[in-house]
Design a protein that fits this description.
Order of helices and strands: HHHHH
Number of domains: 1
Number of helices: 5
Shape: globular
Strand content: under 5%
Distance between the termini: 64 Å
Radius of gyration: 16 Å
Helix content: over 70%
Number of strands: 0
Structural class: mainly alpha
Length: about 120
């Protein structure tokens, strides 16, 4: 059981690293994913870093697109990354984080409109 626990903690820390990196490099999606995967390798498993980056990049890009400031968004995502890292110490939660973060991003991507119509709808 001890081995499974530490793998879960490593995956959770990798997810936290992915969330942290995507908060600072959300406009450069490929860079955020590459750095988060490398950070995941350094902390344990690259799968967690990749999952965290894929999940958080969608949320951060949406916040920036809707008018959030870069510094404020990065500060909030840093807090979220600390929460994700703290939750990784709970048995099995690290695995759940690696599954839930990309699932939330996929759901947000499906629900977001393709393009904002704005005032063009009034011109018709």
């Amino acid at each position: 059981m001890s081995g499974w626990y530490w793998i879960g903690v490593s995956v959770g820390f990798g997810a936290a690293a992915g969330v942290l990196v995507s908060g600072f490099a959300a406009r450069l999606v490929a860079v955020a994913i590459a750095v988060a995967t490398a950070a995941g390798l350094g902390r344990g498993l690259a799968l967690g870093g990749l999952a965290g980056a894929l999940g958080a990049v969608q949320i951060v890009r949406g916040a920036l697109r809707r008018g959030g400031t870069t510094g404020g968004t990065a500060a909030l995502v840093t807090g979220a990354a600390l929460v994700v890292a703290g939750l990784a110490w709970i048995p099995v939660v690290g695995y759940l984080e690696a599954i839930a973060l990309p699932a939330v991003a996929a759901r947000l991507r499906r629900r977001s409109p393709e393009r904002y119509a704005g005032l063009r709808t009034l011109a018709k």
